[in-house]
Input
Amino acid sequence: MSLQKEVYDLFDEQLAHWELARKNFAALDSVQLKTFNFDDFKVCVQFNPGRMASSGAKVDAKTIAQRKCFLCGANRPAEQNGIDYSDFVILINPFPIFKRHLTIPRREHVDQHIRPYFQDMLSLAKDLPDFVLFYNGPKCGASAPDHMHFQAGNKDFLPIVEELPRLKAKKSVLLSDKNGVEMVRFDNYLRTVYGLESDNKDALVAVFNEFFDKLQAGQSEEPMMNVLCVFEENKWKVYIIVRKAFRPWQYTAEGDKNLMVSPATVEVGGMFITPVPEHFERITKEDVEDIMSQLTLKF
Output
């Protein structure tokens, strides 16, 4: 049985026997959505009250130290089953954004850090071709920065997955093409995105590590980034959004300026999530542009 078939069977089993997950996935059928068009691409906004805990999560060191890790096996709900995958466990996310939303933590409790596990991300993407794999850096939207994990969702949901291949000829600049790995930079897209493409896994890992190390520039902390990966046309496509801020000023603003948008990969991938109905109604195209400009960095 393919891993993808196992995952679809896991959804069937979990939604049949886990009431919380069943209700929250069913609620996606009634979420509100609006779209802002930017010539040849778009940014959507989803009102999703089920994401309040994630959008409002405190991720400071004191809060993290005082709470139990919800990704550790001993602390997960009794109803939550998973699929073993190397040193990871594939779980359905009971507070979904995607129609098929997965959380994929490592079994041991280790910090969120992508460089040692990027090759695992590539393996997962190849074994789950219907999904986009994504990674939120510890200061870039991860609600569990103390426990290494990826997420995955049906890849037809995020605008960035459809748009960048289509816009490649128009909006990208070739940075390098060596050892079978093409590296481009996408400009004029509200955010700067670095794209890597290759059918050679080892070469792709080497180029990613080189890029990571250049960004890190000798610092001890992981450089701020969100990473997406899909496997299609017999090759990996990796998109890296370099960040310069965790949350926009609107997140803590008072009164009518306040917008609860805590951007992670989903948001910089073109799908803004807000759990507050008034904020969904109030957010404008100009807000989206301003938030993107605060968060993302050219390199």
